[in-house]
Every structure is written in structure tokens, then in C-alpha cells.
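A.,

Following up on our hallway conversation. C-alpha cells first:
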């Protein structure tokens, strides 16, 4: 039997075809690799955006916590702790807190103001056999290094005529004016309270303490 050897031209064609096939395979591999790289890059970028969003959300939460932390308003002279307001749909209501004197001398609160209502400094007194509210003459005096409670049944900040209903959760701004001209600002949150239903005796007035801020 005769065997016919492939011609040089035939061998060259086969070699060229094989080389072309390898080249195409290599290009396809590169394309797939680039596609994977792009996908990976996109995924990383997406993750980064999500992380930034989470970071912003976390930051927002922290800010909110910080911005809603109004239990204490401090100055070098006086600290106001745990302030709150009795919620009321109509009529007068009152604000309470613990006042801390940070100094070695007595501190006197002469007046208070709020955008929500004219304010008077009130205390409780016995009149005609019953406890009634009346303006606190001389203001609230906090002894050196001591605390003074503004509480139902005792001294308090009286909101004489709120411009709107005071609903639970409302935040009301207050400013205390000290003897000598210093001021301390704080915010109090309104909450329901069934007590503090004392009568008011308007026989005594404190005009200087009832101005709007």
C-alpha cells in the first residue's frame, strides 16, 4: 500500500489552524478573566457604598441619641438634671427638675422664660386651710454645693398660659436667669402626670418673671 505524505503546504495549513485555535482560546480566557475582574470590582464598590450608608446610618443614630440627650443642661454655675413638663391639653402646667449648684456660694434663680408660655417661679403655701400655689418671692435659692428640687407639691416653674396644648413627648425650651445676669438654658420633655392639681392664688404677682423669651 502506498502512503502519501502530506505536502509542506498541507502541514503549514494544519499548524496555522492549530495556532489560531489556541489564540482564540487565549482571547476567550482573557475576556472571561476581565469580566470576572469587572464583576469583582463592581461588587467591591457596591459593598463600599453599603458600608458608607451603614456608617451614615450609624452616625445618624449616634447624633440622634446625642441630640435627644436633654436630661441635663450644665453651666459652670448650675446644672439642670432630669427636667420634665406635665402634659396638659389646656390651661396652666408646670416644669420640674433637680437644680445642682456647682459653686461654693449660694445661687439664686430670679426668673425663667420659654417660647411656649410666660413663666412664673412658684411655690406651695397654706392658705385658708389648703395648699395653694403662689409666686416664689426672692426666687429659688440653691445653697452652695447643694441641690434644689423643683417637684410637684413644691417649687416649680409655672407655665401660665401655654400657646398650644402640651402633648406627651413635646420638647419645651427654657432659660433660667440667675442673680447677676447669668443664664442657663435647657430643654424639658412633656409626660403624663396625674398629680400637681393644686389651686393657684393670683394675689401675688411676679411681673419680671413672666415675660416671653
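Then the amino acids I'd put at each of the 213 positions:
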Amino acid at each position: 500500500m502506498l502512503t502519501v505524505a502530506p505536502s509542506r503546504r498541507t502541514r503549514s495549513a494544519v499548524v496555522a489552524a492549530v495556532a489560531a485555535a489556541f489564540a482564540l482560546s487565549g482571547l476567550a480566557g482573557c475576556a472571561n478573566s476581565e469580566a470576572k475582574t469587572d464583576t469583582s470590582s463592581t461588587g467591591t464598590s457596591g459593598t463600599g457604598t453599603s458600608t458608607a450608608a451603614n456608617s451614615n446610618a450609624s452616625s445618624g443614630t449616634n447624633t440622634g441619641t446625642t441630640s435627644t440627650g436633654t436630661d441635663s443642661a450644665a453651666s459652670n454655675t448650675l446644672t439642670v438634671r432630669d427636667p420634665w413638663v406635665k402634659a396638659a391639653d389646656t390651661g396652666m402646667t408646670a416644669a420640674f427638675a433637680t437644680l445642682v449648684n456647682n459653686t461654693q456660694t449660694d445661687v439664686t434663680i430670679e426668673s425663667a422664660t420659654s417660647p411656649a408660655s410666660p413663666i412664673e417661679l412658684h411655690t406651695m403655701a397654706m392658705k385658708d386651710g389648703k395648699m395653694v400655689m403662689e409666686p416664689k418671692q426672692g426666687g429659688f435659692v440653691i445653697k452652695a454645693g447643694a441641690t434644689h428640687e423643683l417637684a410637684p407639691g413644691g417649687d416649680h416653674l409655672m407655665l401660665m398660659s401655654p400657646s398650644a396644648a402640651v402633648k406627651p413627648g413635646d420638647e419645651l425650651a427654657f432659660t433660667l436667669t440667675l442673680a447677676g445676669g447669668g443664664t442657663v438654658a435647657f430643654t424639658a420633655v412633656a409626660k403624663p402626670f396625674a398629680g400637681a392639681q393644686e389651686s393657684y392664688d393670683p394675689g401675688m404677682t411676679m411681673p419680671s418673671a413672666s415675660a416671653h423669651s
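Residues 72-209 form a domain with the Immunoglobulin-like fold (CATH 2.60.40.1890). Curious whether your intuition agrees with the design.

B.
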